[in-house]
Fold this sequence. Notes:
By secondary structure, the chain is mainly alpha-helical. It has ten helices and four strands. Helix 5 runs antiparallel to helix 6 and helix 7 runs antiparallel to helix 8.
Amino acid sequence: MPPASFCGVCGAAAPAPFRPPPAETAPDLDLRPGEPTRSTLLGWVTTCRSCGACAPDLSALTPELAEIVSSPTYRAVAPGPTQRFLRWAMLCASPSERAEATMQAAWAADDANDPAAASFRQEAARLWAGDPDPQTGLRRLDALRRAGAFAEAMELLDTLNGDPEILAFQRARISAQDHGRYLISSALRPPARTPHVGHGKRKTGFWKSLFGQGK
Ligand SMILES: [Zn+2]
């Protein structure tokens, strides 16, 4: 049995945070993990059965959030697979956490063939604006491309310093106005090659680490 956990907003008993299985296949360019993690998406965010708060870890929320949880805006978030993620986004403390929640809403919308996915990606990209982290820049780029914001994506691409292979792949996809989903493994050549030197090496290592053993 998992240890007892309590909703930080209302104090009711809450399930322990979900622990997804590790991914065994490559992630998408926006870092949505591969299987078997991918299919467990809806389990990543829990809804408190007492107050309706939504978060990956309900015990990490604080009582002050009760005001948002009981607000008409929070209550009005449409039911469906994206609801828990959009509600969690409203409770997030930082723009980067809110962007993550909003991207997860986009993934849930993808799985439900809900065209709102594009607007969620636009919102995540907006929340990520100004984040100096190179990996975040690449995720933002993919969010804009997949939202069909090709001009904005191309403008951003010229400012990024991420993995050159990813950038070249994205440039070709953006030029073709392709908003499709791609795996990182489509953009990177097989790992048995000379690693990049200098600052590029660390980034390549990061991307490669997402493949798991021997992939
Ligand atoms: Zn609660």
